[in-house]
Amino acid sequence: MKRSYRLLITSIAAAGLLAACGNNAEENNGGADNAENNTQENNEADNAADNNGDEEAAEEDLSGELVVYSSRNEQFVDELLNKFEEDTGVEVQALHEAEPLQIQEEAGNVQADVFISNDVGGLEYLNQEGLLAESDPENIDTIDEQYRADNNEWVALSTRARGFIYNKDMIDEEDVPTRMEDLFEESYADVENGYAITRGGNGGMIGNVSALRYEWGDERTQEWVEAIQENASGIFEGHGDIRRAVGSGEHAFGLVNNYYYHQQLEEPTDNNVGFVYTDQEEDEMGAIVNAAGAGLVEGGPNQENAEAFMDWVLEEENQLAFVGDSLEVPINEDLDPPFEDAVPFSELHVQDMPLRELGDYFQDTRQLIEDAGLDLELR
């Protein structure tokens, strides 16, 4: 890692400085002091040599490659992985748009070292299937226990909440839905240009539906999925498509994660948008939240580099690099959100559900969505 190179240079510089000091002492203090200083100089040189050997070994440990599977947006992950390469010299091979089930399918011939997911449900599902490995990363205590697996098989680093981005030129804030269950109402299909959702296979939608299953049960949740499939005017591949469509007036509002609203505000045009967090009244369930993070794949071909990656990504500057340009909120409360106007989670009424619970629902949620016909449909 980069700090290894710095320590190596520091050790060599320190040895040279001590040697210089020893020579000055020899000139000023005579033979007895010479012997003492020479002994000290030799000890320091031996220590520096030992340190050099340790750092060279550490450098060797970080040679080779790291294979990363990711279901997170490629533009955010690439910057993170490029930084890891620059800091450590490890060559990263990345497979983007990877699904958790791909890790499961390759269990007999493991290809990936690390899985980066936009959905804690997918990470915890893999963990429950025994496909992630225990770890003890440095700096792990900066992440609250509720945002990591019991034995740190996965660690979440950034979080977001669900809600409705809306076009202020097309719909007033008071006419935007304020609860998830409002989308049962057919009247929202009649607003100007209608509303937009993602397809059912999208990670954010899977987490959304899993949270509703936890809150409502399966029958009512499936009715909700069927309702939004019927009433939505647009069904898109991803949330970025929705934010742009709402910003340009193609649709009046759309169901997204809050950081997509942050991203649209940063656009030079089509940025007259607002955002409504759902279910914020005291007697309502609270905003649905999810998180993005990384897990160690059990039996990965480059285990030492994978463990080094987990140590590296938990350094605070790299926790912020994980958030990157996504404009999500860091889970580490000691870190300021990159988007200064983001609403702190402490100010939101959020759903009372441990994020690990999403793993219990992950697989069945995919089946429920498929049964409702929303899985692959786009319009």
SSE inventory with pairings:
Elements: H1 2-61, E1 65-70, H2 74-88, E2 91-96, H3 100-105, E3 114-117, H4 120-128, E4 154-167, E5 195-198, H5 203-216, H6 218-231, E6 234-236, H7 239-248, E7 253-257, H8 258-265, E8 273-277, E9 289-296, H9 303-313, H10 316-323, E10 329-330, H11 357-372
Helix pairs in contact: 2-10, 4-11, 5-6, 5-11, 7-8
Structure description:
There is one protein chain. The chain is an alpha/beta fold and 379 residues long. It folds into 3 domains: 1-61; 67-159 and 290-342, D-Maltodextrin-Binding Protein, domain 2 (3-Layer(aba) Sandwich); 161-289 and 359-372, D-Maltodextrin-Binding Protein, domain 2, CATH 3.40.190. The protein contains 11 helices and 10 strands. It has helices at residues 2-61, 74-88, 100-105, 120-128, 203-216, 218-231, 239-248, 258-265, 303-313, 316-323, 357-372, and strands at residues 65-70, 91-96, 114-117, 154-167, 195-198, 234-236, 253-257, 273-277, 289-296, 329-330. Strands 1, 2, 3, 4, 5, 6, 7, 8, 9 and 10 form a 10-stranded mixed beta sheet that branches. It is globular. Residues 1-60 have low confidence and may be disordered.
